């Protein structure tokens, strides 16, 4: 985490990355998927703001005040706005401004963009707010433990321009290191032992990179309806590849590579891009496309 002067630190909220064009009431995922229908409440609220393109995070805030729930965002998939019996409200936490009216702001310094963001959101709807920011590392670390739904920090150079992609110049720090993988198979003979065979693309080809620990009970009903058999016969993987060095082979049923999950990662395997242990699945990432889970990114 950067501690030198010239950096601004922001909390990393546990949500879905989004961009919102206020004038057209459109909500987009970071990969270009139109989310306006699923999050019509956020899109409608954005109409109250001046004409701008804002970068931020969709966050599901529980109505009982107990915090945020990432999995509630997935429940909006395929829907038109909130359900009447929903126990959460979706907020948009914004951290950058890309354009104001017809003017592109991406080349302007972050400090200038930050001031403009605060101006745009001033007196705006309660569900559309700026993320807090500080140049004090001590205060930023307090956010991780004190603010519900904060999973880490993002550091940005105060004089830096906005740059999309992995080479954006932002520095991210997470309390628990994570990455994403595509589900390409299922193994296990009972619900208690059921685990996911994980894959990542390399050179345009999907390859197995490991096998997860057995799914936690609360994840099983969330994952199972999303998986569909590929129609292939049962396949095998070397046990050593799967973090099971005492097992010759691991047999699994292939599924269509359609579901992305977030996993906790502690250390790399002996072969680059593969895990020498069994990672823990944290949750489904319904906001991510399998095509973009690539070792080369």
UniProtKB/TrEMBL annotation:
InterPro entries: ATP-dep_DNA_ligase, DNA_ligase_ATP-dep_cent
Keywords assigned by UniProt, alphabetized: Ligase
GO MF annotation list: ATP binding; DNA ligase (ATP) activity
GO biological process per UniProt: DNA recombination; DNA repair
SUPFAM superfamilies assigned to the protein according to its UniProt record, in alphabetical order: DNA ligase/mRNA capping enzyme, catalytic domain
Domain ATP-dependent DNA ligase family profile as annotated: residue spans: 5-172
Keyword Ligase tagged: yes
Family designation: Belongs to the ATP-dependent DNA ligase family.
Protein name: ATP-dependent DNA ligase
Source organism (scientific name): Streptomyces caniscabiei
Source lineage: Bacteria, Bacillati, Actinomycetota, Actinomycetes, Kitasatosporales
